[in-house]
Structures are given as C-alpha cells and as structure tokens.
DNA sequence: CCCGAATGTAACAAGTTGGGTATGTATCCG
DNA sequence: CGGATACATACCCAACTTGTTACATTCGGG
C-alpha cells in the first residue's frame, strides 16, 4: 500500500502508467515521452516495478514494460470506506434537492 | 490531483484521515494518536487542508478537523481507466476458471 | 570477437520532506 | 489584565528525492 501510494505521488511515474495503459512500451520510448533524461526514467521505472505496478520483459537489448493494473486494487480498496462517506453525502445532497423540489411544488 | 496524491503518500496523514472517518477531532487529540510531536502533526494537517482533504472549524482555543471525503473523488476518478483494465483481467480469470470447470466435466 | 544499441547503476548536486525544539498567537477564565 | 491552554509557525538538521553526467552491462550483427 505504502509503496504503491508513494509511487503514485510523482507525476512522471503517473505519466508512465498512463502510457502503459495503451500498450507495452520499451524503456527508451518511455524516456522519449518524458521531459527527463533516460537514467531518471530508469529510476522511476524501478520504483514502479518495486511497487508492483509494472512488469518487465526482456526483448533483445530492450526492456518492455507492461502495466500491472491489479496493483491498483489495493488503492481502490483503501478508498472503500471513504467512498461510502462521500456517496452518503451525495445521497444527502440528492435528498436535499428532492425535498427542495417538493417544497417548491 | 497532485496535491491529494501527495498528501496520501504519507502514513501519518493517512492515519489522520482514518481517525477523522469516525468523527471530527481536535488537533490535540490527533497529535496524541500519532507517534510524533504536535508541531509535526500541525504540519501534516496543513498539507491535508491544502489538499482539500480536511476542513477546520474553530471551537474556543481548539481547532476541530473534519474529513472532506469528496476530495477523494478525484482519486477514484483517476483510478477509473485502470479499474476497467484490472476488471477485464479478473473477468478473463473467471472465464478461465469456468473453462477449467467445463473441461473437468 | 568486437561494435553499437539499449538500458541499468554509481556518484553527485540541489531541492524537498519530516522530525524536533523554541517561539508566536489567540482564546478562555479567574 | 494576566496566566493557562491549544495550536500554529519559524527555524534547524538529517534523510530522502530527483535530476544530471559518467560508466558498466548485456545482447545481436557483421
């Protein structure tokens, strides 16, 4: 959990995940898409790997990174109890609106 | 988005949110619940405030903090496209299991 | 077997974080 | 008014982050 949230706190890393959402991508390609040099990207990839957010596969000299969306399930689960709260608030808001409508009739 | 994810990347801050999930709580009470001294907690509260994750209300000398779960909606929305992916994988897994069962018949 | 391509790692500088202690600041109470 | 209470802020320091450049490593091709 901690590792995943830590990984998500950086915008470059979130950009990487966004790219990988479309298709597996080599480290070099990812580096081109980011405004930083390749070694920096390598380290970001390491963080993502250690958080379990991506997988690597070797293809000749290239490393192909793929997204591992399951790793985000724990974030989703962490959100669970909070989701209930904000949905309750939204429900209350809807009720309020409904009551308002009724009152206006 | 960035501010919220950054705020969530720290465990002390997540603990604060967890406490606030139950009930509004004063800064002092929050500080007692954490393993760090009060000024540190104050700073964490500031980060949470600036990310929109909590609200403060003044009650005499005390500051009462309340959770603002709506701020987490954007995290939920950010998860959206990824959620679809991991659900697809789960579906595939279920299909696989079903096929396995069928094969075993 | 050596060269180039692709990528990771090491080492370093600059900025940021997160903790602590010391010091404001506002509010209630006697 | 003056002291106590409850916080926040200022400042300092050690640890981590993030970017850079230089170097090591690994793989395929001629």
From TrEMBL, chains A, B:
Q: Does the keyword Isomerase apply?
A: no
Q: Which PROSITE patterns match?
A: HTH_ARSR_2
Membrane-traversing stretches: none
Keyword Magnesium included in the entry's annotation: no
Domain HTH arsR-type, residue spans = 1-87
Report the superkingdom from the record.
Bacteria
Q: Provide the alphabetized UniProt keywords.
A: DNA-binding, Transcription, Transcription regulation
Could you tell me which SMART domains the record lists for this protein? HTH_ARSR (SM00418)
Which GO terms label this protein's molecular function in UniProt? Answer: DNA binding; DNA-binding transcription factor activity
Pfam families this protein is in? HTH_20
Q: Which NCBIfam families match?
A: HTH_metalloreg (NF033788)
The name of this protein is: Winged helix-turn-helix transcriptional regulator
State the organism named in the record. Answer: Nocardioides agariphilus
Task: Specify the taxonomic lineage.
Answer: Bacteria, Bacillati, Actinomycetota, Actinomycetes, Propionibacteriales
